[in-house]
Design goal:
By secondary structure, the chain is an alpha/beta fold. The protein is about 45% helix and about 15% strand. The chain is built from eight helices and seven strands; from the N terminus they run βαβαβαβαβαβαααβ. Bound molecules: NADPH dihydro-nicotinamide-adenine-dinucleotide phosphate (NDP).
């Protein structure tokens, strides 16, 4: 195991979570990644190990307390403790409010908000975080956690919830050496972003390319952020130099969000 710090990343098999896993491992962390699809997670781990990185992982569904307990226990069994938690697993989803079904509402909130609670609770309770006066909890929220996202009320509500949760737990843990922050991406090119564009193309009866152009026009930088740019802020927040940043929600969004 060595004396590396240990990170636990949810939703580590794709997009932002995969970039965060690679970035933390490149910074010298041992990283345990998880996602629902065990095959995808195993193949992401195999790719990263082939790059010479200290990464392992397994299945986890953040909508299930039992599954979260098992995944955290697996990471602790392997590495002894968890120093850094990145709550990244999430899903999009929504629709016109009058047509939105309750199942979608409940699953978006259960995944994006309740999932962050479940994993944070488990890691703080049984992950040994805070040893050596160091711990980092980083929640991947969204600029949609600070401003409304049209046709995405459950998503926007869940991400506002993540920002509120972050601020409250950040204050609670402030004296322990554990910082708690939210990273709020705007538009980031990932498999989820492609699915989101396809949803809006259906809503508006236009092509996915038209949606892309419309979104790019809204972003002051004129382009989507990359998963690596989001991972870069995570990579800073885990450093000792970032010890006084806590209970914050920080945007990585090409200027899309302004506060
Ligand atoms: P992707 O769809 O590319 O990846 C999502 C990851 O989460 C996958 O590894 C997926 O694996 C996992 N996941 C999904 N549901 C669960 C679950 N219930 N339990 C455990 N793992 C799960 O998404 P992105 O990388 O784009 O998004 C990552 C985070 O960033 C999300 O929280 C998203 O809301 C946020 N974000 C993304 C933005 C964007 O534009 N892309 C903008 C703002 C925020 P599997 O399906 O196998 O479980």
């Amino acid at each position: 195991m060595g004396d590396s710090r240990i990170a636990f990343v949810t939703g580590a098999s794709s997009g932002i979570g995969l970039a965060v896993t690679r970035m933390l491992a490149e910074q010298g962390f041992a990283v345990y990644g998880c996602a629902r699809n065990a095959g995808n997670m195993a193949s992401a781990v195999a790719d990263l190990v082939a790059e010479g990185l200290d990464v392992s992982g397994g299945p986890c569904d953040v909508t299930s307390a039992d599954s979260v307990r098992e995944a955290v226990a697996a990471a602790v069994a392997r590495y002894g403790r968890i120093d850094v938690l990145v709550n990244n697993a999430g899903r999009g989803g929504g629709g016109e409010i009058g047509k939105l079904d309750e199942t979608t509402w409940l699953d978006v909130v259960n995944t994006n908000l309740n999932g962050v609670f479940r994993v944070t609770h488990e890691v703080v309770a049984r992950g040994g975080m805070g040893a050596g006066d160091y711990g980092r909890i980083i929640n991947i929220a969204s600029t949609g956690g600070k401003q409304g996202v049209i046709y995405a009320s459950p998503y926007s509500a869940s991400k506002h919830g993540v920002v509120g949760f972050t601020k409250a737990v950040g204050l609670e843990l402030a004296k322990t050496g554990i910082t708690v922050n939210a990273v709020c991406p705007g538009y980031v090119e990932t498999p989820m972003a492609a699915k989101v564009r396809s949803g809006y193309a259906d809503f508006w009866g236009v092509s996915e390319h038209d949606v892309l152009e419309k979104f790019e026009a809204k972003i002051p930088l004129g382009r989507y952020s990359t998963p690596e740019e989001v991972a870069g802020l995570v990579g800073y927040l885990v450093t000792d130099a970032a010890a006084s940043i806590t209970a914050q929600a920080l945007n990585v969004c090409g200027g899309l969000g302004n506060y």
